[in-house]
Amino acid sequence: MEKKKLYIQTFGCQMNVQDSEKMAAMLEDAGYDSTDDPLGADLIILNTCSIREKAEQKIYSQLGRFRALKNANPRLLIGVGGCMAQQCGDRLARKASHIDLVFGTHQIHRLPELVGAVGQGSGCRVETGFYDRVPSLEIPAQPHAGRVGTFVTIMQGCNNYCSYCVVPYLRGPEESRPLPEILREVETLADGGIREITLLGQNVNSYSPSPGGGPDFTDLIRAIDGVVGIERVRFTTSHPKDLSPKLVACFGDLASLCEHIHLPVQSGSDRVLGMMNRGYTAEGTLKRSLRCAAPARRSASPRT
Question: What's the pTM value of the predicted model, to 2 decimals?
Fold first, then answer.
């Protein structure tokens, strides 16, 4: 039987990119081949972002364009996932009445089931419930053939509750994957030809699968450095309050760890940082950075 066609359009962060890869992998097992052409698709999914208002405007505009495709082909299914779907829920379904499915950030693992239900005429489904543990974290993404780099999600959610940020409400509290599970995924990727990985999370340097003890983010990076075939390791994004001498030392000790760090300091004003509820001061961050940099310079070894 000929497979149906799936078109996924991704908005937002790298984690959304990897979530889209997971969706494509699951739906391939359910009988869908990916396509770059929405005109020939049987199923269209928008994986959305809600961090900036402009991102939401783009998504509504795209949904408006897809309405014409739906009118021309009533059997076409349109789904909206990701952070905007989580935030808007029923409101999104009412505003764009031609869509068939709205699914939130904790519902990705149910996508084949939900697509099957709306395909059988169940009517528009809105699924935005949270789980205590995020089931989709356990689903490995399938990078496109021929790629040498890919993303690996190590944790999801955030516990910081910065005053301006919706992430804790849309992605939920922090949940970290077990280190052995991540290591197995990286080893599988290396066996498949991947040479560069980027570790993903809303706040990767707070990675802690066993709060109060057990491995931390530096232990994970050092373990991945030992995987045969992995030549480059990156990570995003990190939080200034969790910058530690142990983490900075990794840049001097590990040949695979690329000499780059994304550290969103947000502001040089302590008053503004306090209003933002960032949990650190400009002066404290500068002092901590200098303390961290000193041992890193002493331990740094030549790289090839």
Answer: 0.86
